[in-house]
Amino acid sequence: xxxxxxxxxxxxxxxxxxxxxxxxxxxxxxxxxxxxxxxxxxxxxxxxxxxxxxxxxxxxxxxxxxxxxxxxxxxxxxxxxxxxxxxxxxxxxxxxxxxxxxxxxxxxxxxxxxxxxxxxxxxxxxxxxxxxxxxxxxxxxxxxxxxxxxxxxxxxxxxxxxxxxxxxxxxxxxxxxxxxxxxxxxxxxxxxxxxxxxxxxxxxxxxxxxxxxxxxxxxxxxxxxxxxxxxxxxxxxxxxxxxxxxxxxxxxxxxxxxxxxxxxxxxxxxxxxxxxxxxxxxxxxxxxxxxxxxxxxxxxxxxxxxxxxxxxxxxxxxxxxxxxxxxxxxxxxxxxxxxxxxxxxxxxxxxxxxxxxxxxxxxxxxxxxxxxxxxxxxxxxxxxxxxxxxxxxxxxxxxxxxxxxxxxxxxxxxxxxxxxxxxxxxxxxxxxxxxxxxxxxxxxxxxxxxxxxxxxxxxxxxxxxxxxxxxxxxxxxxxxxxxxxxxxxxxxxxxxxxxxxxxxxxxxxxxxxxxxxxxxxxxxxxxxxxxxxxxxxxxxxxxxxxxxxxxxxxxxxxxxxxxxxxxxxxxxxxxxxxxxxxxxxxxxxxxxxxxxxxxxxxxxxxxxxxxxxxxxxxxxxxxxxxxxxxxxxxxxxxxxxxxxxxxxxxxxxxxxxxxxxxxxxxxxxxxxxxxxxxxxxxxxxxxxxxxxxxxxxxxxxxxxxxx
Length: 707
Hints:
The chain is an alpha+beta fold. It folds into 6 domains: 12-76, Helix Hairpins (Orthogonal Bundle); 100-339, DNA ligase/mRNA capping enzyme (D-amino Acid Aminotransferase, Chain A, domain 1), CATH 3.30.470; 343-453, CATH 2.40.50.140; 458-531, DNA polymerase, domain 1, CATH 1.10.150; 536-620, 5' to 3' exonuclease, C-terminal subdomain (DNA polymerase, domain 1), CATH 1.10.150; 636-703, Rossmann fold (3-Layer(aba) Sandwich). Helix 17 packs across helix 18, helix 18 (550-560) packs across helix 19 (563-575) and helix 19 (563-575) crosses helix 20.
């Protein structure tokens, strides 16, 4: 058998047509292989220059012999075949969101909170860095030894979607860094589409009959979540960098908290040197007046920018202050988003309908003649409650003013009464009985909300609770949306959260339903298997207990550590006052939360739900992101009196960072009482029950906070 001739080094002009056909086939196979290695698996084995040589040779051969050009030629597309699905990536450091401010008073209070927390006098200047808030999709990029490793979305702040291949198609994101490279570097920023590019993209989408995007942000998000990187590569995506995540191996001298920069402003200089685009409007600001002037300047110039913004972000410039301030819940204390004022439009209320939420609250909603506000079509607006409707005198058929600010749910702010018809219907009133189950609708004294008294016998409440259970921030069961929950409910396949996991055993029932096939059912089973292991904090949040949001769920998980300990403690607290007071002593858990939690545990059917879930799931213990070998790791601490060297809030954050549980009241389980000036009765009680007392000096020394 003859050896196959190697045509790679044969000049194109010397190739016969038959040889050219062989070389085209060989090049297509090679380029496709390298595209897959690069875009799907982040494992290229060719240098960029060698890869470019292959593509250029294929381009030139196809140009010389047009009939040899193939529809699936890699030079006619960018990227590679899509990944089967998006993997999840856990952020090394959480991607926090920002608190919002809407007025000068809000900004002043933000500034004052910082001064109180850090104990900074009015005479000391706080310098901020301000920049426009891009209305795009937040992403995190990870580099190791200067090479791009992966990138992901913000997700829930702790876990994001792996969109590495798609991010690598964006020209403004470097694939490698060659200057002053940290060992590990995570860059956070915003992916967006410019205004002009957005209109051109929508025009192309319309011509070919594809989806037209509502606004640039949706266009950017939809483009980044494509399964095929080639589709993403065709979209005009851009990027601005503005923050960092995990950074390891920078500046061994320890300057700037171990980073190579001591200020936010200095970090932007590094970004530019590394090749990342930084918003040119970023500015240093050193007073409230400066901040408001900058805000007005950006707002007035907003229409001249080629990208959408929805406000201005301010960050404290000093990193040591950022470190001390830390974060509360899911937002840093050292930054805020100053949102632009809401945009308003006039439309008509077609009718007022009532929705029933998972806690039984009846919420009136206005169905509107569609109106476009801030580039988004608005068809519904919340009316909050009956009192709000009566106060505004909102009726069906009224012309109304609709307001929408950023991602806030649109609301009716005013009625244009001069346009009201003489035959307008009477004022709206809440129904006396539930529209879903017929149970009595009640309104508690001093509450604005009307509630269905049916509880879990009300299908609307039960369905909404199940929707909440599978939602992204709860169990995050992809492929099982609200529509599916309703369908499974109607078929009586699910009634409790545990039934959702039992769907794996009901293939015959599911496959008989419209839209379900062997593959979609297999995908559902695979997802349910993955979600059979769940963190305690997620499970607590997923239960949908009134007032127990994500932050409260994390506080409970951090305090009780394991599902069994939490379950036993809650059952005990229902009838035991001492246990109830221990629950109430958790800093951040208030009396209303305690009442709702214990009401949940008083119901036998709720205990049955928890027992089912404990059998179906592997519920993992709370794991604190702490310094495990610190003096205070695992200890219970109570602070009392006035601390002179740091504020109480800062001391609490420091203690939690070191792995301690901070409580608001003493018990025999308390390890330390940190007593400042004027400690009051807690000092006497600590001495009586044998709790060790630390002075402020002791605390500063042991916590490493002495400055």
